[in-house]
UniProtKB/TrEMBL annotation:
Protein's name in the database: Uncharacterized protein
Organism: Euplotes crassus
Region feature Disordered, mapped onto this chain: 1-114
Composition bias type Polar residues, residue spans: 38-57
Highest rank taxon of the organism: Eukaryota
Listed Basic and acidic residues bias regions: 1-37, 75-87
């Protein structure tokens, strides 16, 4: 019986302490929110001093117009097949048209036995 009362009292005290902490936290939060609102609403300080009006200015980010003007900005540009062939030809790696139908050499990777 005595233990039950002690448990109830302890539970009640914890609950009251928790409610008190929550109320204090909400009061602090409300105070901070009100302070921020008063500072940002018209640029005046909390005390109403209008001699220190401040305005917030936002600058647009400046990008290099050459880079930003492309509709595919930031995308990797792939070469067309014709340009790829021309670059291969310019390196002297031309493919012989008579051998184009023959198979590539098998180095034992394909699994076929010769």
């Amino acid at each position: 019986m005595l233990r039950q009362r002690l448990k109830e009292n302890a539970a009640r005290e914890r609950e009251e302490k928790m409610r008190k902490n929550i109320a204090e936290s909400e009061a602090r939060r409300d105070k901070v929110e009100e302070k921020n609102f008063n500072e940002n609403s018209d640029g005046n300080e909390i005390n109403g001093d209008s001699s220190q009006n401040s305005t917030l200015t936002f600058k647009e980010p400046s990008f290099d117009k050459k880079l930003n003007s492309s509709p595919n900005f930031g995308q990797k540009k792939e070469k067309s097949p014709e340009k790829k062939l021309k670059s291969i030809d310019s390196q002297g790696l031309e493919e012989d048209e008579s051998n184009s139908s023959s198979q590539a050499p098998d180095f034992g990777i394909s699994g076929k036995k010769e």
